[in-house]
Every structure is written in C-alpha cells, then in structure tokens.
Amino acid sequence: MQIQAAVVNEEEGPFTIEEVELEDPQDNEVLVRVVGVGVCHTDMIVRDQLYPTPLPAVLGHEGSGVVEAVGENVTDVEPGDRVVMSFDYDDECPSCHSGHPAYCADFFAHNFSGQRPEDGTSPLSRDGEEVSGRFFGQSSFATHAIATERNVVAVDDDVPLELLGPLGCGIQTGAGAVINSLNPQAGSSIAIFGAGSVGLSAVLAADLKGCTDIVSIDLKPNRLEKAEELGATATVNPEDVDDVVEAVQAATGGGADYAVESTGVPDVAEQAVDVLTQRGTLGVVGAPALGTRASYDVNDLILNGRSITGVVEGDSNPKEFIPDLIELYRQGKFPFDELVTYYDFEDIEQAVEDSEQGDTIKPILRVSEP
Known about the structure:
The chain is of the alpha/beta class. It has two domains: 2-168 and 335-366, Quinone Oxidoreductase, Chain A, domain 1 (Alpha-Beta Complex), CATH 3.90.180; 175-311, NAD(P)-binding Rossmann-like Domain (Rossmann fold, 3-Layer(aba) Sandwich). It is 27% helix and 26% strand. It contains eleven helices and 18 strands. The chain has helices at residues 41-47, 94-97, 107-111, 170-182, 197-209, 221-230, 244-251, 266-274, 298-304, 318-330, 348-357; strands at 2-8, 15-22, 29-38, 57-58, 63-70, 82-85, 124-126, 129-131, 144-148, 152-154, 189-193, 213-217, 234-236, 256-261, 276-284, 307-310, 340-344, 362-366. The strands form three sheets. Strands 3, 5, 6, 9, 10, 17 and 18 form a seven-stranded mixed β-sheet that branches. Helix 4 packs parallel to helix 5 (197-209). The two termini are 20 Å apart.
C-alpha cells in the first residue's frame, strides 16, 4: 500500500514527508494506522548517525494507533484494537525469558538495524529500492506502520489514543528508571539530571514513590519550572551556581540516595556519580554517541559503596508496565500529559526544532483521527 512517511535521506538531513510503499504484514506482524507519534531524542541521534541505522530511513518509535490488519499467526490483537507500539525484542534470549526484554541479547538488530531481523528485509520501499524500516519495531513517522505482535500493547478506549505513544519509549524510560530499576524507598532523596520528557517522567515517578527530596537539574528555566510543578522539591540551573555537585548535595542534606542521568553528556554523568551519598545508586539513561566514555574516581566509588547501573527503556516489560502507567494516569497520579505539545504531522520539522531548542518537552505528532 502507498503511505505517507517522514523520510530521513542523509546524515543530519530533514524529515521529509514522502510517498513510500508499505508491504502487507507478515505472519507475526501487525498493520497499524498511526494516530499519534511522539518525537524522541533517539530519533534525532539516528538522524545524525550517532547510532548507525542505514539511511534513507523512516524513524519514529513512540506510535499509537488502530490495528487494521494482522498476520495469520497473530492472536494478541485484532483489527479495530487500539494499541501503543513500543520497542521490539526476540522473546527468546535469557533476558526476555526472565521478564527483562529491554535487555534483549538481540536488541540492536530488532530496533536499530532498519530491517526485519528474521529475514533481513524492510517492509518499506521507494521507487523499488528498500528504505530502512521497522525502527524500534515500527517506523511510526508515517500514516501506517508495520509492527510485531511482540511490541504492540492493546489499550482501552477511555484515554486519548493520540496521547499514549510516548509511553512506548521516553515516558516509560524515565518512569521505569525510578520505579523498576532504582526502586527508591519512601523518604529517600533523588537527583535527576536533565528535565526533558525522560527526566520529568522520572520526577513524576519519584514523587509517586514517596521521595521527599527530588532535585531537578537542567539549563532551561522553563523546564525547571515544570519540574517544580510536577513534584521537584528543588531545582539547580548549572548556569546559576558555582558548583553543581555542591548545590545538589546541599539540597539533599549531604548527598542523594539515588540519581538519574538522562542527558547523555559524559561530564554530567560524572557529576551524577559525585552527588551520591554513601551507598547511593546512579541510573544512567541518557544515550550519547556509540563509544562515548565517562570517568570516575575509583576509590571514591569503592570507599562510598556507590553503584552505577545502566537503564534501557526503564527496564520495562511494555505489555505490563504501559497498562500500569495508564492506570496511574487515570487516577491522576501520573499526569504525563503535562509534558505534551501537539503538532500536525506535516509540521514534524518544527516539532523537532522546538524539542532540540528545549521549547517543547514532548512533541506529539497528530497523524490521523482516533
């Protein structure tokens, strides 16, 4: 079928809406009419080729929509179902079998290769030439997407479908980093570096978990204001203080029990280690270019009993965690809609620019009617 999709044709190039060909779903696949799709930092780092998905490519990995067709082996969803699309995984490796699909042994092939890992093909083409597709098992910067039975999550019709796509990546990453990975005790302190959609989702989750000292660190005053509205008890703008580490330690009574690093900046990751109190734990979420290294004082780490853990997709099992987050949203305990600004699909370049400038926290593109 012919669809409209935002194609990146060259490194650091624009998202250009073009007509491309989308194949019918294979046996384990699902055809989804996209209703809404979030714009995420990962889309930009792939556009800029910091992660090497082959170009040209259709990106987009926070899609929500309505199932239009399913392959003959699909049983979890059927045409007419409303779904959120999340990351893909093989469902066969030890991590997947133990309930941690975000650490799938074949995660890169299923999410960044631009191909179906099963047969090396893409469901997308243009003028007879393949275009990289199945990005995060979906490539949802398009009017329609091919996903898999594994990475679609059916949702009820009492919440706005166009809102839900970012639960598939950015929102679940920040919330899951706190709820699933760090799991802070009530009354503990946490420092969250970066106040984009991931960092602010972490603020919401920290408030939900009962953290009494929640410090948000960012360079954008508008984002720090939003952090305070969502539960941060203190904010730090590095441009306004002489020493970020000292400022965070002062705000947490000597050091944070937990920290989340969502910026992907190595110097910030080092600060995030230094703000920890004894036996504190840092969750590293922000994704820089492949091969990026950060350093820390080994003896400081040893003598203080500090821990550093990497976090992918909030260590989430989307089929369980996304419904949990939706229920918390229903109850008014997880108001992630406060992060969202909507754009028409054809305004994708404006949405990307506003996100990169820090003017918009979580852009969502409206692609079709629910």
